[in-house]
Batch of 2 targets.
Target 1
Amino acid sequence: MAAKVPSVTFNNGLTCPILGLGTWQSNPGEVTRAVGEAIDIGYRHIDCAHLYFNEKEVGEAIKEKIKQGIVKREDLFITSKIWNTYHRPDLVEKAVKISLSDLGLDYLDLYLIHWPMAYKEGSDPFPSDANGKVIYSDVDYVDTWKAMENLVEKGLVKSIGVSNFNSVQLTRILNAATIKPVTNQVECHPYLNQTKLFDFCEARGVTLTAYSPLGSPQRPWAKPDEPSLLEDPKVLSIAKRLNKTPAQILIRYQVDRGIIVIPKSTSKSRIAENFNIWDFSLSEEDINAINSLDCNGRLIPQAEGREHKDHPFANPDITF
Ligand SMILES: NC(=O)C1=CN([C@@H]2O[C@H](COP(=O)(O)OP(=O)(O)OC[C@H]3O[C@@H](n4cnc5c(N)ncnc54)[C@H](OP(=O)(O)O)[C@@H]3O)[C@@H](O)[C@H]2O)C=CC1
Ligand SMILES: O=C1CO[C@H](CO)[C@@H](O)[C@@H]1O
């Protein structure tokens, strides 16, 4: 029988499996198989987004596994994210309904604002001008948040949260919220361990979700000569001593910190490997050694929105 994944409890009393499967760049031709295999292995949490252009194929796997009686809808925890071109309050319900229809679901467990920046509304996810520069919209993400709250009231989503929000942006949401965000999903791994943002969120009852926990080696702008987390000597030496793989160490690092973690894979063996982390934990000494790798090593800078007033990482005065 598959191991049961421990859960994190949100500020609204609902729970979320601490380990989930990422789906960015999971090829539509492979993702149905991969999500199906993940559910067979024991994953119950799947991280999706409208921007990943594969929600229909993820939905096919969910439908099939429910049909086979492997899981019931309520056993699963499905996240999606509203893309930057749908921030205008009157578009928010339309956006969630597109993801629900693509996934074949009648509710989401979690819906996130993918980024704080609003882009020009329309069908192009990266609307750009003649010089290739993204065209922005001036919608305030606080107004988007108020429309997200309506989705909870309407039963379309169980919980709402944010992604890629810095501490100042999160504070603005918390000050305006009737329904508090349950999580902030951000890039988090040993080269950018987010200790300050994690402490800040924890003190306010907001969980952290770690994306790109393995260092996102598949990201399109990766350079061949860059240091690789999966080959980092410190990570390798801990993995060797504990008889685990580097990926298992990187995933367990987040679990042991109480951070939700969503590694992506479409390989059956790596999906299984990434799930097989329940028979060990890291000592304080190992966690401290991994923490010492922190070097502000951001891998997902969202460079194309950098001049946007709401870009979360562009203001040097806001350090986390
Ligand atoms: N909110 C946001 O803005 C963002 C959210 N995300 C979410 O987080 C998820 C994870 O982040 P992502 O950037 O995809 O990167 P990850 O850090 O999860 O790395 C995924 C890559 O690592 C490879 N891999 C997976 N398991 C192993 C293993 N055991 N050993 C060696 N290599 C492995 C995968 O290849 P293979 O598939 O071949 O196994 C893939 O190339 C995304 O898929 C997405 O759901 C990501 C970025 C931004
Ligand atoms: O989830 C994500 C994956 O990649 C996208 C393209 O850069 C990002 O915008 C986003 O954060």
Target 2
Amino acid sequence: MAGLAQKSFVSLSLPEFDSGHCSPLSGKLGFLKVPAAFGIGRGFEVRSGFQAPIKAMESSRTPSYVVSNKLDNFHELDQPGCNPNPDDNVPVNSCKDTLKTSNVGNSTNILWHKCSVEKVDRQELLQQKGCVIWITGLSGSGKSTLACALCQGLHARGKLTYVLDGDNVRHGLNRDLSFKSEDRAENIRRIGEVAKLFADAGVICIACLISPYRKDRDACRDLLPEGAFIEVFMDVPLQICEARDPKGLYKLARAGKIKGFTGIDDPYEPPLNSEIVLQPNDGPGGSPKELAEIVISFLDKNGYLQA
Ligand SMILES: Nc1ncnc2c1ncn2[C@@H]1O[C@H](COP(=O)(O)OS(=O)(=O)O)[C@@H](OP(=O)(O)O)[C@H]1O
Ligand SMILES: Nc1ncnc2c1ncn2[C@@H]1O[C@H](COP(=O)(O)OP(=O)(O)O)[C@@H](O)[C@H]1O
């Protein structure tokens, strides 16, 4: 039996879902806010797939002075090419005769370039809304399995997805990171940034990693436009994860052969306000496919599966 705790704007009402953890629809994000977060209502006409590329070419003939690294935070600039970083607290360099550059972190004198083909155009092409589905939970809770089932379910509906699995990303981009808390934080930050790029590409990006710290997950949420970060909590008790132990890692951690293993001698902070809470308990009704359908229903009901 799978349990779905309804948070925010989850609006599934199937009787078989345990809603013991449900809070009433709080309107924290609110369904009506979702389209705005994706750029709808910013004056873009509804166009057919054939018209979209023409519009992009036409607008590319005129210079664009609209810059932002957040879709809901656009700035009109009065000086062509003068391009401050949209973050208010970022120092902006002189802009008298040259392009205005910014300093961000250790990167100095950088300029935000904007392209006339935007997220909204890509979404229209793909007929979906780019977003991040962030699956968090203990090792063995079923994150990777759900991610794969979701990917299959959405692919079958003609939706473009990409999975960023913590284990896999640690084989390449994040191979320099350990499981110390600061390295886990960096792992999550980098995956959050990459997921943001996928979402901006219009892709439904499925990130599945333990991501044990609330602060780090919330920081990833803050990278994205409101409504574009959907947190899915695999609320599976440690005893079940440990009984599954498909890689034998819990056994090694209990034997003291792996130090700092999440849930054993390293913390896991469960989400307080995730969009979806899944509570599969290895019984009937909690198969990966059924769990994936719960998430897909959420996406469908909240408008993510159309442009
Ligand atoms: N110390 C320790 N703690 C937890 N997990 C460990 C550890 N060492 C190795 N592993 C294996 O690494 C996988 C978790 O990687 P993540 O990138 O998802 O972790 S984290 O988000 O940075 O905490 C995790 O994979 P999953 O089982 O898929 O979660 C483990 O197989
Ligand atoms: N919904 C489920 N019901 C029962 N077993 C599951 C479910 N999802 C995954 N599993 C099993 O649990 C184990 C851990 O799954 P996995 O997806 O690797 O978890 P994680 O990525 O969180 O470590 C695997 O043996 C998998 O077959």
